[in-house]
Amino acid sequence: MRFDTIIKGGTFANAAEVAKADIGIKDGRVVAIAERLGDAERIIDATGKLVLPGGIDAHCHLDQPQAPGLASKGAVMADGFRTGAISAAFGGTTTIVPFCVQHRGVSVTAAVRDYHARAQGQCVIDYGFHLIVSDPTPAVLGQELPALIRNGHTSLKVYMTYEAMRLSDHQILDVLQVAKEEGAVVLIHAENHEILTWLSEQLEARSQTTPRDHARSRPIYVEREATHRALSLAETVGVPMVVVHISGTEPLEEVRRARARGLTIIAETCPQYLFLTADDLEAPDLEGAKAMCSPPPRDVANQNGVWRGIEDGSFDIFNSDHAPYRFDDEGKLRAGRDAPFRAIANGIPGLETRMPLLFSEGVMTGRIDLPRFVALTATNNAKLYGLTGKGTLAVGSDADIAIWDPDKRVIITNSMLHHGVDYTPYEGRTIQGWPVVVLSRGEVVVADGELKASPGRGRFITQETSSAWKHGVAPSWT
Ligand code: URP
Ligand code: ZN
Ligand code: ZN
Fold this sequence. Notes:
The chain is of the alpha/beta class. It is 30% helix and 21% strand. The chain is built from 13 helices and 20 strands. It has helices spanning 81-90, 108-119, 138-150, 169-182, 193-205, 211-216, 220-237, 249-260, 272-275, 300-312, 354-363, 370-384, 467-470, and strands at residues 3-8, 11-13, 18-20, 22-26, 29-34, 40-45, 50-53, 55-60, 93-101, 126-127, 130-132, 155-159, 185-189, 241-243, 265-269, 317-318, 401-411, 430-440, 443-447, 450-451. Strands 8, 9, 10, 11, 12, 13, 14, 15 and 16 form a nine-stranded parallel sheet that branches. Strands 3-2-7-17-18-19-20 form a seven-stranded mixed sheet, with helices on one face. Helix 3 (138-150) packs parallel to helix 4 (169-182) and helix 7 (220-237) runs parallel beside helix 8. The longest helix has 18 residues, at 220-237. The radius of gyration is 21 Å and the shape is globular. It starts with a strand and ends in an 8-residue tail after the last helix.
């Protein structure tokens, strides 16, 4: 067979193996993996490089219309599908799954229509949507969600906090029941709204309103309690559940305990819980707001606990939670340099740096091996969210590939990144390893530090049923 492209001489890895092999690509798919392949229209020399499945970032916020009461306080997202997808691609990611949000009083179907319009013609890589349910009316539960799930929107998200989006436990149970009947998987943002609101009021009354106080308003037990409750809700209905952005040891312990009870629980963490701590919130002149997200970065003991969870297999997926608010007066400083933390947008950027940070500090330090890196950043997201053909390199899979130079040393600066945000919380950090060529369905998207493909070529992915369902309540869901 004459291939369109052969990636020659590299070391390829997926979640199960590492081997020296050439990769043959035809019509956008991997069609051969063998020690030596013959000829092709185009040969990409990968000698000395690692040939990995392109990453999947299944937790990112792009062009998300803001609701009143969200901590974003009127700040507009600096990345839509165009810059978000380009930035992702430069960091080795070839599929993104951002959130389509239903605001109260609006139908989910209308929100999906609107979000498709926002993505249309913008994306340079493939994309799907999770659906945020913030108004589970009888029509949403009885008609809209079943129809949407049957049409391939198989992942839903619910919030336990944020005034404009949070659901009561009763409402969450209703959403979980629909997910069970229709075969969807539910992601949950787990923080105890009442405690964090009460603590915020107490802090404000004492004029403690800095970004560091944002973390004080959401101690780890705020997350631990909500995680425990969320898992009890999953247990009540008998459904798998994805706990997103776990920030420390105690909520992760809740996940471990639930798994020991036989529940299928998928655990996600994010770069900010490995690479930032609450000390980063202390920077003067509100610079600490550059590390402000929810849950907040914790102390070193929790950071170590998250690393242990990465190493011992407790975490299944590693996503950015890219929430692209600028630092300037369009974003975090919208309410001024003296703004109290409750007036500052929550969330930090991370689409482009997600994989290089974990590659450098996980793989290059020997904390995790390449298959685990691939599982965390790509394969498990593909299985969990039913992204067929994605997240692995195998004959028949999409040729979504990132070729990494493990020797490339990079000092992260915001000027080298491609997002629309005016800062990175990782400014000045030196890392080793970076993706130098990135292909999406066989087409080179990034090479020589340049974008080689046009926005709009990315396709919307209709999701299959999550693999979490295929294993009933077994703790091992992959
Ligand atoms: O602070 C964060 N994480 N902002 C983004 C929205 C969310 O909670 O995931
Ligand atoms: Zn969240
Ligand atoms: Zn998020």
